[in-house]
């Protein structure tokens, strides 16, 4: 049986590897099924993703496509105070429209080809994504067990009835979703997240292009420590894993890290968990000790996202021993009332205690990061002033602080189920209240009109921000922090998805060609970078070719042709 693992990720600024799909592929190998798998991200492999997907379909002739939807947008509300392209009010970049283009290609190639959607973004709003993309099958949550169970059923079935077999199998699987003949979506039992406690023996692989991305751009390698989160934050987009946690054995985490060091020469990792120190810091301490005791402890470093609480002296010691170079904390507010509104388990006193401990004992090489949410419900001039004071004090002590101006309202979150004041809601085209007042239904009435936005409408980027629009708030905060070099916007780095330069996609495609032994094609793309690129683009292209030449065995390029040196 031939299966195409389609990584439907249009994001270009930080090309992270399809870790979830590689975990799925490892689980399929572990199950010893007669299945041939191919992983493809058309957005990264060609300037024409539709043509690239069609080429892969013609070459591999898949019996089934498993499509991973990692993000529905880039979640960056305002990357700077300047007006966005075409006068956009927010900088959130919608990914579902280009992903829908891929599903159209699949349908045109074979209308009867079963396409099973999954991934983190799909899990957050599966029915709405199925409707938007025109799909009939889905699998939510960690899918190693579910997908291998599905394949086990299919490989022993009649290929001519594959679509019917897929529907029958998914209808009974935990997390399975099937669209019935009348158009409604039938959901199987609630998906499970207990797959990590029983890890597969086959370790995930990394495609050569992502090895090269990691080395040329410093993108960390994902390393999963646990799944789920015990909190129920107001903006959480993970309805499956909310309130449930499944920890991976510390020895398995360290073994996977060793595998990446030995096979690919990758040494910097991101512990891929919502908050690595929840629900109990003991599990993270065990992982830290396993990394610190591994045979590559001198070369391994890592970072992760932390909750403010719990954070003890024992954990601080474990982070130092395992070389955690960048603990990142999300501090939603510096106000207890607002923290309660987000259903957080910490208060202002906990923030002060944690950062007091952290900053007293951190080694010189450890960079502490904090992300702050501005513009949330209840934000006022007083709460802004209070937060600014706390942030400046942290920045004065060497903490790197990044902030968001507004909250993206995602489907099915507690925030989305709350009646929201229309005057504080914004889309790329402008304020929601103004748009509704100008609509066929006429004015919405009171200036304080509220509405619960239906989930399907929330697939299109919608942002909540008070007491002023996102760009105004961004300009105000940029002015207040103008003398603080450690404080800035939450964005993707020097290159921004909403302001994507023309040279970025050719550079990414050049990386794919270079890593897969096509130096002449890579050189052609590099010439486009040199023609269109600014100083940053040219510098990134030079770094790419230097890294590829230094590690040909890892990325599989072989000697570079002379034109690549241009």
Automatic annotation (TrEMBL):
Its cofactor is [4Fe-4S] cluster. This is Radical SAM protein. SMART domains: Elp3. PROSITE patterns: B12_BINDING, RADICAL_SAM. Gene3D superfamilies: tm_1862 like domain. Residues 215-441 form the Radical SAM core domain. It comes from Streptomyces sannanensis. Transmembrane segments: none annotated. Pfam families: Radical_SAM. Keywords: Iron, Iron-sulfur, Metal-binding, S-adenosyl-L-methionine.
């Amino acid at each position: 049986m031939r299966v195409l693992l389609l990584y439907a990720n249009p994001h270009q600024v930080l090309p992270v590897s399809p870790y979830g799909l590689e975990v799925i592929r490892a689980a399929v190998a572990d199950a010893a099924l007669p299945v041939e798998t191919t992983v493809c991200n058309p957005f990264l492999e060609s300037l024409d993703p539709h043509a690239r997907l069609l080429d892969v379909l013609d070459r591999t002739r898949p019996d089934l496509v498993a499509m991973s939807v990692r993000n529905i947008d880039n979640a960056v509300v305002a990357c700077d105070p300047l007006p966005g392209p075409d006068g956009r009010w927010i900088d959130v970049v919608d990914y579902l429209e280009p992903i829908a283009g891929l599903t159209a290609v699949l349908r045109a190639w074979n209308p009867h080809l079963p396409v099973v959607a999954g991934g983190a973004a799909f899990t957050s709003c599966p029915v709405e994504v199925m409707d938007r993309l025109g799909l009939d099958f889905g699998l939510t949550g960690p899918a190693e067990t579910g997908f291998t169970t599905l394949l086990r059923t299919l490989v022993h079935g009649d290929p001519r009835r594959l679509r019917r077999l897929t529907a029958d199998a998914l209808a009974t699987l935990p997390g399975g979703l099937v669209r019935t003949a009348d158009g409604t979506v039938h959901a199987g039992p609630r998906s499970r997240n207990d797959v990590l406690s029983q890890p597969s023996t086959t370790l995930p692989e990394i495609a050569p292009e992502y090895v090269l991305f990691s080395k040329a751009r410093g993108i960390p390698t994902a390393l999963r420590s646990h799944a789920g989160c015990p909190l129920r934050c107001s903006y959480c987009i993970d309805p499956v894993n909310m309130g449930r946690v499944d920890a991976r054995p510390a020895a398995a985490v360290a073994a996977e890290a060793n595998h990446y060091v030995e096979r690919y020469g990758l040494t910097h990792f991101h512990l891929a968990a919502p908050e690595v120190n929840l629900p109990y810091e003991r599990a993270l301490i065990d992982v830290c000790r396993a990394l610190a005791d591994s045979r590559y402890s001198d070369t391994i470093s890592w970072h992760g996202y932390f909750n403010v609480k719990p954070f003890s002296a024992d954990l601080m010691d474990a982070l130092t021993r395992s070389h955690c170079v960048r603990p990142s904390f999300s501090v939603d507010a510096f106000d207890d009332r607002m923290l309660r509104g987000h259903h957080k388990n910490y208060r202002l006193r906990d923030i002060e205690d944690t950062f007091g401990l952290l900053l007293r004992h951190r080694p010189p090489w450890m960079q502490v990061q904090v992300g702050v949410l501005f513009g949330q419900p209840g934000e006022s001039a007083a709460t802004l002033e209070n937060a600014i004071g706390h942030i400046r004090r942290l920045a004065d002590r060497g903490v790197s602080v990044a902030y968001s101006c507004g909250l993206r309202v995602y489907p099915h979150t507690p925030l989305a189920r709350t009646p929201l004041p229309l005057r504080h809601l914004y889309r790329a085209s402008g304020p929601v209240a103004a748009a509704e007042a100008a609509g066929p239904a006429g004015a919405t009435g009171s200036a304080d009109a509220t509405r619960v936005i239906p989930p399907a409408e929330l697939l299109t980027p919608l942002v909540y921000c008070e007491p002023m629009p996102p760009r105004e708030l961004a300009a105000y905060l940029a002015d207040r922090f103008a003398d603080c070099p450690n404080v800035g916007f939450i964005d993707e780095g020097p290159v921004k998805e909403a302001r994507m330069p023309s040279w970025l996609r050719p550079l990414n495609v050049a990386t794919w060609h270079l890593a897969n032994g096509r130096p002449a094609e890579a050189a052609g793309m590099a010439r486009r970078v040199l023609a269109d690129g600014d100083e940053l683009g040219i510098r990134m292209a030079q770094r790419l070719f230097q890294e590829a030449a230094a590690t040909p065995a890892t990325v599989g390029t072989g000697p570079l042709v002379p034109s690549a040196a241009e």
